[in-house]
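Good morning C.,

I know you're traveling, so I'll keep this short. The sequence:
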Amino acid sequence: MLQRLLLDKSTHGILLDVGLPILHRNLRYNCRVICLDGKILLIRPKMWLANDGNYREMRHFTPWMRPRETELFHLPKILSEIQGETHVLFGDAVISTPETAFGAETCEELFTPRAPHIDMALDGVEIITNSSGSHFTLRKLDTRLQLITEATRKNGGIYLYANQQGCDGERLYFDGCAMIIVNGDVVAQGSQFSLNDVEVVTATVDLDEVRSYRAAISRGMQAATSTAKYQRIQTPFELSSEDEESDVTRGPTLPIQPRIHSVEEEVALCGGCYLWDYLRRSGSAGFLVPLSGGIDSCATATIVYSMCRIVIAAIEDGNAQVIEDVKRIAKYDGEGVLPKTPQALCNQILTTIYMGMKKQSSHETRQRAKDLAEAIGSYHVNLDIDDVYEAQKNLLVNTINFEPRFKVHGGTNQENLTLQCIQARIRMVTAYEFGQILPTARNRPGGGSLLVLGSANVGEALRGYLTKYDCSSADINPIGSIDKSDLKRFIAWAEKDFDLPCLNGFLTAVPTAELEPITQNYVQSDEADMGMTYQELTIFGRLRKINKLGPFAMFQRLVHDWSAEREIRPDDDAPRYTPAQVAEKVKRFYHFYAINRHKSTVLTPALHCNDYAPDDNRFDLRPFLYPPFWRSFSFKRIDMELEKIEKKLASKKAKEA
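The tokens, ready to paste straight into the viewer:
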């Protein structure tokens, strides 16, 4: 590939910064290759590797541990013939042109305490590039933007930031948002979510603005005292021309206010772009979403509808690749016929299916599912699974002469769980059955199959409030790392922005699995079953993963954060509990986290959107078999600390009395 780039005359006259894996002295390096007019000027290896969270870069690459040092790299024959030399410089150096100096850093290096751009700027480098593979999470752009702007606000300079965009075949979505920053101000910004394969962002910058910004005497004197200097590779190539300087109509690009999407927009746009990339790459005929009438499956279906809106907008913009993909995937109206509206595309790409039970399912959930399907245009299937359920239950009766009963009918907890799991697993099998045959049954040319989408949110996955191999088992889960509160905000936003009034019914409904019979005195509730609210689950998840707190440390934190005696701030919506109630909540969470952690090993791959996702594949590496927490030392420490707290509170009350 590098050979083709060097030989391509259309790239000449442009200073190229290209990413490439390089084998040097039997070690693999992640490198930037700086090229000009078909020649390699420098190979700059990455110095700081990403080795936490979703990344294991050190499994594949070695960091360059010698700042500001270089050595010779022996070019392979196919490159040396083009270069006209057998060796080029390899290491930490910069490029010097007649009017400025240019350096490169890579992705993770921006996030490190001693980022290379700091020393480059102190050594007079004025333009710095960063070619990044920074994945998306909710609200991450704020952090990324702050780091990039601060990179040049402290030292001045021009920062060119390019980021990967799209699904790269994993759980991650890369959200692009290329930017050009001058002295801490954004002067150009690319799209954060787009179906475009290539996007070009340009700006006109004034190097004298950088020099004026850096003109503080104290800063200049301190920079000059630095003993270690970068080796500069000289090139006569000029980044500007006299013609541009005399063009009075062409001045420096003015700063802009960077575009930052709301969380609700991020859910819609990230999920939509990711699902389209996934669908077109997989070669499948569309998606199938089991609709339960609850807000989670509603959110999944709405994200698919958002995808359809994004695709239709790309078609209207003339995106050739999207048009070609739609013609290949959406074939029900004939070869080459393009749908005109998001609903029309949704009808060809999305199937929704409501799998009810006559005694367990309510009319309200069935109607909500039907209303949503009509609003977004999906091909909807409404069925009951009672016959299959009864046949499976009778297998137990006829084989071991034992008939399990629901809790409301006097059964034990184990019997109750058994009957619920039978229903849940039947729904998974039914979803895949319909996903396999529906395109053929609907006479789609070429048949094909549908990708089944899951709808378990991050809180349920963390708590283990799901049946192993039920409808949480699917091909991909677009909401698997999004919490309930963010999903509710997304649905409330989509109700107005997508003009879907039917979504209001999902917002006001009580979350329920509807796996137990409905009686006059009992309706199943998720939060009652779990013994904790979804809001509490979000807090537990953040403290466990992001703050890295175990049971005792979490109790110490929450006994203050959730104290009923605390002073309430205007934005404080945290629960108010006694220390004993906090202890019980923390113990309950860690107990169910431990006994259900095994479920994470088979969780449907989920689009990564949060830093506390329990993804067992790569992000959240934990044991899946824990000893009982009830007998653990951490629980005993909670009891001991609780006893101290309650004695102090009792003593305080006695004195006040």
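Safe travels,
E.
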